[in-house]
Amino acid sequence: MERTGLGQMPPSIDMRRLATLVLAWLMVIAMAPGFALTSGEEEVRVLVLAQKPARPGKLDAWLAAASQAGVTADYRFVGEADVGISLSELARVDMLIIDSPYTSKLAGVMAALDSTLKAWGKPVLFVPRRGYIPALHLGETHGRRLSDYYQHGGEKNRQHFFAYLKALLSGTDTASIPSPLLLPDAGIYHPDHQQGVFADAGAYLRWRGLKTDEERPVIGVAIHRSYLVDGIVNHIDATVRRLEQSGALPLVYYHPARNGEAVKKLLSPNGKTIPHAIINYRAVFDAAITRETFGELGIPVLQALVHKESEAHWKQDSAGWPFSRIPFYLAQPETAGIIDPMLVAVTEKGQTSALDAQLDSLVRKALRLAQLKRKSNENKRIAILYYNSPPGGTHLKASFLNVPRSLERILGGMSAAGYKVDPLTEHTLTKRAQAMLEGYHQTDAFERLLASGLAALLPLEDYLKWFEALPEMVQARITARWGEPSESRMLIERKGRHYFIIPRMASGSIVILPQPLRGGVDDNQGALQHDKKLPLNHSYLATYLWLREHLQADALIHLGTHGTQEWAPGKERALAVSDDPFLAVGEVPVIYPFIVDDVGEAVQAKRRGRALIISHQTPPFRSAGLYHELSGLHELVQRYEELDSGPVKAQTRQAILSRVSRNGIYADMGWKDPVDTQQFPHFMEELHHYLHDLAEAQQPLGLHSFGQAPLAEHLTSTVMQMLGSDYLHAAGGGKEMLAQDY
Predict the structure, then answer these.
(1) 353 phi and psi angles, rounded to 5 deg
(2) SS3 call for 415
(3) Using CA atoms, how far apart are residues 243 and 225, in angstroms rounded to an integer?
(4) 105 or 566, which is more confident
């Protein structure tokens, strides 16, 4: 039979209508005799009418089980009212299954088929996602039994469903057929365990012959119960195998939505969290509850994405992830504190299919996070990258952040936390950071940097080994713009061997270095900062390779707003591991202090930069006020408004116009010089508003230092700015209060 999808579903049917229909069906059932095939018939034919969000992969699994049992089965997707099946079609079928996950929508199908099914007179099984609706021509016992097989799904239940159905319809004994394996609301899954799921972590660990304190990383994998019911487990099973091959213990669990207590019961049964990190395959509808739950567990959570389209579709799609699926797979998880969204599987012919390179990267990232959590601070190697901003020379800063002072505070805090680091002063850090920047602008600085311990070397052959293992298309687009790696200007020769020079300074196990230049030395670096077409150059990639492979950094810190790695070429969302942002950082955890008021660009760092964002404060600020020239002009405007007509007012008028002209205010306000007499009253009104707008403008008070609270008096002015003009008016101040020379 032809399978058809009929597009969007009509609005849900009122539940009272469903109750009425069920009562009508019960009357039919009460009057109808039981149904069985005649003894001469050998073939059992089943048709499934399904409604979305039932998945083709689920139905294909049921068809495969039917075929193994010698049952002929097919399915089609239907709408709520337009079911599109006739008695002549049903004449070729022995049983009808109506798979409608939402009970309210099932009422529409029942209403549409009401007269047809009554006239047909053969078994009909109604299967919502939860609960039982009396079947037609099966009886209560058989209807519930078949419904349980179908609702709880899984390979064993599918096999036993068709065995039971064949026995029932042929009139043979059903006693030897195992009862349904009922799937609880929460549990732990493993593909090698064929007897359902485990009720708790203790039972799972006993089955594995393990203890919770065993010295191996434990990675939780959060899934939906529907994956198991529907048999959509290819990507889950692949994740389990990858984790096991990597030496980790997978703990795959599911739980009811909006139930943080169920999660904690599974993962932290005795108050001690079992997993070291979690891979989350679930959509997030309850960000607040999820955030609170994971916060109490105290472990990092990664977001795994499964595309509904094919691998070919994803590869060709520059967006990477559909806009319509951002809310529950990107935005809500981010709100809940889930990080690093990574596409790891696609959908081929109704079933999920893991993408090997993508899944491998996600698993390695989870293991890196687990290692970071388990490793002592004194043994961690951390790299901190700062920016040459504005580009060129020896400038170093980030958006409203005092970088040298922040570095001083960060190193001091790390030392106090047990990291191997020698605290350095702001002055020393500034001098060394500026010296390292010279390496990108002056090739004669290479030897000075090496002699002073402010540079490391990466052998060119090491870079070539990594680079030549990349996909050919990736190599081609990089060399098309930057030439061969051997042509990089950041190479130095030593005893016949060539090395990339990596400007960097070490302080114990902490390394500080500038983020490499985005383009060539002669390019406009500022213009390239957000360029998503220009590939990363060899020096840039070599620096990050050195951090990953030679330094073997446990984590990277991109210090402040903002760097360039997250803006490199690649998909907008759900990037490939061969996209430039991922080529650079690989699976090393990235920690990104980012200014709190730049949400839009922070999203880029989260979704494209694989970063964990730590928001930092803006500097304190206050109203700008008016400096002496403009303050004097404001006094003249106020005086003019108070004067009566006469020579003094005329002189004041002339003084105002003179100051306006001298300070270029005409052009700023969009007026022509001079203002004629008739327009002057209107001009004065606009001038007064203009001066107030200047006075009210927010002015930062210096730069923020990471981890340092502002002075008390600066906090007061900041809070006043946040409260706004309504507060000033209520407090008896108003705009005139701000229009003064501070």
Answers:
(1) -140, 120
(2) helix
(3) 21
(4) 566
- Give the Cβ contact number of residue 160 at 10 Å: 23
Q: How much of the chain is helix, strand and coil, in % rounded to 5?
A: 45, 15, 40
CATH tag, 187-374: 3.40.50.2300
Give the strands of the sheet with 124-127, arranged side by side.
Answer: 71-77, 44-50, 95-99, 124-127
The amino acid occupying position 428 is T
Q: CA dist 95 to 71, 123, 132, Å?
A: 11, 5, 18
Cα of 478 vs its chain's centroid, Å: 27
Q: 395: cis peptide before it, omega within 30°?
A: no
Give tens-digit pLDDT for 17-60.
555 555 454 444 444 444 554 443 568 999 999 998 888 999 99
Contacts of 503 (CB under 8 A, 6+ apart): 436, 437, 439, 440, 449, 454, 455, 513, 514
The runs of H, that is alpha helices, within 317-402 are 326, 332-335, 356-374
Contact 606, 339 (CB under 8 A): yes
3-state secondary structure 616-658: ECCCCEEECCCCHHHHHHHHHHHHHHHCCCCHHHHHHHHHHHH
Secondary structure of 306-327 in the HEC alphabet? ECCCCHHHHHHCCCCCCHHHHH
The helix or strand, by DSSP H or E, that contains position 243, with its residue range, turns out to be helix 234-245
| Distance from C-alpha of 535 to C-alpha of 482, rounded to nearest angstrom | 8
Select from 510, 491, 538, 498 the least CA-distant residue to 432: 510
Q: Burial level of 573, CB count in 10 A (0-12/13-18/19+)?
A: buried
Beta bridge partners of 409: none
The three-class DSSP label of residue 352 is strand
CA distances in angstroms from 74 to 44, 52, 64, 608, 735, listed in the order given: 12, 16, 10, 43, 75
**Start-end ranges of CATH 3.40.50.2300 in the chain?**
15-170, 187-374
What is d(CA 46, CA 165) in angstroms, rounded to the nearest whole number?
A: 10
CA 591 – CA 154 distance, rounded (Å): 41
pLDDT digits 0-9 by tens, 70-123: 999 999 998 876 777 888 889 999 999 999 988 878 888 888 888 888 889 899
User: Read out DSSP for 101-170?
Assistant: SSHHHHHHHHHHHHHHHHHH-S-EEEE-SSS--PPBSS-HHHHHHHHHHHHH-SHHHHHHHHHHHHHHHH
Element counts in the chain: helices (H) and strands (E): 31, 22
Tell me the fold of 15-170: Rossmann fold (3.40.50)
pTM for this predicted structure: 0.86
Asked if 626 and 634 count as a contact pair (C-beta separation under 8 A), the reply is: yes
Preceding amide of 327 cis, omega within 30: no
- What is the rounded CA–CA span in Å between residue 305 and residue 576? 12
Asked if residue 71 lies in contact with residue 80, where contact means CB atoms within 8 angstroms, the answer is: no
